[in-house]
Design goal:
Blueprint (H helix, E strand, L loop, with lengths): L4 E5 L6 E5 H14 L5 E8 L5 E7 L7 E3 L2 E3 L5 H10 L5 E8 L9 H12 L9 E9 L2 E8 L7 E5 L10
Parallel strand pairs: 2-4, 7-8
Antiparallel strand pairs: 1-2, 1-10, 3-4, 3-7, 5-6, 8-9, 9-10
Length: about 170
């Protein structure tokens, strides 16, 4: 990862995501603070002009009504609608791109509940998100974390994105 962030993509290039540096740093900080409890929030950003790449600018902390335990998370909703409306009115405009959460055990794959939640998001027109992202953060050492990125295309199986090894894209400012 460098100052712009990290690029993840599908081998055939169909899906790409750029996790911005500030979003990754926030997920790491919140995961470290959660210690032995899952935590998470939503991902906010935009798509590239050609719609090929999700640009994740922000990862939110858990909303105040979120609940969690060692191996479960129920993300709350308080304040998210207002936040998303404010981001929509910002320049550059941003919107909901998906979810992120921390798995306390180093299990980098989505659970059955995670998959069901993301399929629900993809199918629900209220989200305006046919290909939601799920970022799972897992511990690799006492102070290190890995990021695993998945896309849940509406009506199709999930797709795992791999880290690209060339320099990452710059996020739009």
């Amino acid at each position: 990862m460098n100052s712009e962030g990290q690029v993840f993509s599908q081998r055939d290039g169909r899906f790409r995501a750029v996790l911005g540096h500030s979003a990754m740093t926030r997920m790491e900080r919140l995961s470290a603070a959660a210690r032995n409890k899952e935590t998470g929030g939503i991902l906010i950003g935009a798509y590239s002009d050609d719609l090929s790449t999700a640009l994740v600018r922000e990862a939110t902390p858990p909303s105040p009504d979120s609940r969690s335990g060692r191996d479960w998370l129920e993300r709350g909703k308080i304040g998210l609608q207002e936040l998303l409306l404010a981001r929509w009115d910002d320049t550059p405009r941003s919107h909901y791109l998906g979810e992120w959460h921390f798995h306390t055990a180093a299990v980098p794959c989505p659970s059955g509940q995670d998959c069901q939640q993301m399929r629900t998001v993809a199918a629900d027109p209220a989200y305006h998100c046919n290909n939601p992202l799920l970022v799972i953060v897992t511990p690799t050492s006492p102070k290190g974390f890995s990021f695993n990125v998945f896309v849940f295309p509406k009506g199709s199986p999930r797709v795992e994105l791999a880290i690209e090894r060339h320099p990452p894209l710059r996020l739009e400012r």
